[in-house]
TrEMBL record:
Family that this chain belongs to: Belongs to the trans-sulfuration enzymes family.
Superkingdom field: Bacteria
EC number, UniProt record: 4.4.1.8
Keyword Lyase: yes
Protein name: Cystathionine beta-lyase
Signal peptide: none
Reactions performed catalytically: L,L-cystathionine + H2O = L-homocysteine + pyruvate + NH4(+); an S-substituted L-cysteine + H2O = a thiol + pyruvate + NH4(+)
Organism from which the protein derives: Roseomonas alba
Enzyme class: lyase
Keywords: Lyase, Pyridoxal phosphate
Molecular function terms, GO-annotated: lyase activity
The protein's annotated pathway: Amino-acid biosynthesis; L-methionine biosynthesis via de novo pathway; L-homocysteine from L-cystathionine: step 1/1
Cofactor(s) this protein cannot do without: pyridoxal 5'-phosphate
Length: 388
């Protein structure tokens, strides 16, 4: 894991001047719909002004856009009110009848639903591909292929994609690439520097860090930024100033929190790998994980989200384990300071590959609690799992 001192410094200082009151550390929260112009000439020239109408952004949202752009190395960032709406904006920005889109088979559920419900209605054909296909993606490319989606690692089964190998096939053909970069928080993976066009995050998760807001970000290369922003605005997507402020506040501590998620997640993953109740652990930071080599080559750290498969167990025993946990909550989302553990069913969201682990798949988010306390909670859970 590389030293994050530069990132920590950047996140403490970037975009603080935008909208800040004199001598205030943080940008101010600006609530506004109507923006007044001092002269007729200024009003008539408003389309060239960054600040022109509340739906198009205020000083608070601009500060967040600038901060995310600095974090991800983007030409510009587009905000959306949730990760799912950011996904929809990215898909619809390039949806044209007769076009073809490639999507990894391990993709986040709302993205798959968006492809099935939205893209197909627009006459776009979608092909789902094996996420570990690498350079073999060339066999699936067509003259009409317009967009390729990536998610690395996948948020339920955690395959790591060979991003450079995929881009080597798609970029020469002018195919736009989008990656869901939520797992890295925009800190541990820099896809735009690798040649990806759009780095998308559900900022609800690590950027927020406190499980109290919904937000999506689309960090864009210069070649696609104007198109994505225009489509997001036509969809009426905007972010309230209070949510933007909370995201900015969360962003300041992102590097510190991610380091803790990294360390605790690896500790828990290694401990689970040695448990007799566990058939396999899916964490690319473990040396025996199939994606470990790619993870080491492309990432500078790991988040707290990973998966594991339990040996076959009856539902009542699983319930006994889960219902008695003190520190692990059961709930959707992840990326907050609290630890989570839920059962998942990746097979229900597959069509190009098969997921049949012969046991219950679980997803764990390692929060900011002390690792030893989390292990003790899991250990007692395994006692209940065994019926003791």
């Amino acid at each position: 894991m590389q030293d994050t001192e530069a990132a920590e410094t950047l996140l403490c200082h970037v975009a603080r001047e935008s909208g800040a009151q004199p001598h205030a550390v943080n940008p101010s929260v600006v609530h506004a719909s109507t923006i007044l112009f001092p002269t007729l000439a200024a009003f008539e020239a408003r389309k060239s002004a960054r600040l022109r109408y509340g739906r198009r952004g205020t000083a608070t949202s601009f500060a967040l856009e600038d901060a995310v752009s600095a974090l991800e190395g983007a030409a510009g960032t587009v905000l959306a009110p949730s990760g799912a709406s950011a996904i929809a904006a990215a898909l619809l920005a390039f949806a044209e009848p007769g076009r073809h889109v490639l999507v990894p088979d391990n993709v986040y559920g709302p993205c798959r639903h968006g492809c099935e419900d939205l893209l197909r209605r627009f006459g776009v054909e979608v092909t789902y591909y094996d996420p570990v296909i690498g350079g073999g993606i060339a066999a699936l490319l067509r003259p009409e292929t317009r967009l390729i989606w990536l998610e690395s690692p996948g948020s339920q089964t955690f395959e790591v994609q060979d991003i450079p190998a995929i881009l080597a096939q798609t970029r020469p053909r002018g195919i736009v690439s989008v990656i869901d970069n939520t797992w890295s928080g925009g800190l541990f993976l820099k896809p735009l520097a690798m040649g990806v066009d759009i780095s998308l995050q559900a900022a609800t998760k690590y950027i927020s860090g406190h499980s109290d807001l919904m937000l999506g970000t689309l960090a864009c290369a210069a070649t696609v930024h104007d198109r994505v922003r225009a489509h997001a605005q036509r969809l009426g997507l905007c972010v309230g100033p209070d949510d933007a402020y909370l995201a900015l506040r969360g962003l300041r501590t992102l590097a510190v929190r991610m380091r803790q998620h990294h360390e605790t997640g690896l500790t828990l993953a290694a401990w689970l790998a040695a448990r007799p109740e566990v058939a396999r652990v899916m964490h690319p930071g473990l040396p025996d994980d199939p994606g470990h080599g790619l993870w080491r080559a492309q990432f500078t750290g790991a988040s707290g989200l990973f998966g594991f498969v339990l040996n076959p167990v009856e539902k009542p025993r699983l319930a006994a384990m889960m219902d008695g946990l003190r520190l692990f909550g059961m709930g959707s989302s992840w990326g907050g300071y609290e630890s989570l553990l839920i059962p998942t069913n990746p097979a229900a969201l597959r069509s190009a590959t098969r997921w049949a682990p012969e046991g219950q798949t679980m997803r764990l988010h390692a929060g900011l609690e002390r690792a030893e306390d989390l292990i003790a909670d899991l250990e007692q859970g395994f006692v209940r799992l065994g019926g003791e």
